[in-house]
Amino acid sequence: MSYGDPNNPYGQPQGQPGYPSQEQGYGAPQQGQPGYGYPQAPAVQQPYGAVPQTMPGTVSGARAMLWVIVGLQVVGAVIFALGAVGLNAAKNDESLKDDSSFQQLVDYSTGKLWALVVFAIAWGVFAAVLATKFNSGGNGVRVTLLVFGIITAVLGLYPFTLIGIVHLVLAILIACFVGGSKGKAWFNRPRY
Q1: Angle CA(159)–CA(161)–CA(166) in degrees, nearest 5?
Q2: What is the model's pLDDT at position 113?
Q3: CB 70: neighbour CB atoms within 10 A?
Q4: CA 175 to CA 190: how far, in whole Å?
Q5: Which of 6, 53, 129, 185 is the most exposed place for a label (fewest CB within 10 A)?
Q6: HSE of 137 in the Cβ direction (CA atoms, 13 Å)?
Q7: 116 φ, ψ to 5°?
């Protein structure tokens, strides 16, 4: 029996893939042919696809929406402060001094309006701090942004229904953009 005989049924098949040719021999490495044993492992990939080098558009949009919320908070604080000052000035008006129901309303409303001024300023500062953390923040900032968006949406629904529609829409978009896959990849990216 000769392995060189092309008509030998027990010999090495000639020219079939997966078998070394006679020129290579059995100990020679095989180029381009799969070996025996365990299959090759796939190449190691980064989680969630490629690591973003620049901020994705949706994440950048969420940051811009946060700055819009900061601006709206400043405008709201000014309006509430002007309302409180106006009501306080009306409280001292001689023609309305005898109206006890108006005086009760003024006393109650000015305190609430000043509390709303403080809340609007605090919420605006919180939004500004979150907006500045987009480049350096990690997953904790992302979770805080999600909570911020959800609480802002809830506040836009209940106490400030008419005024809060813009806040509601912006907050939902912020939560969706930051909570999406691009937001997750951006905030979980490695920082060297």
Answers
A1: 120
A2: 87
A3: 19
A4: 22
A5: 53
A6: 19
A7: -70, -35
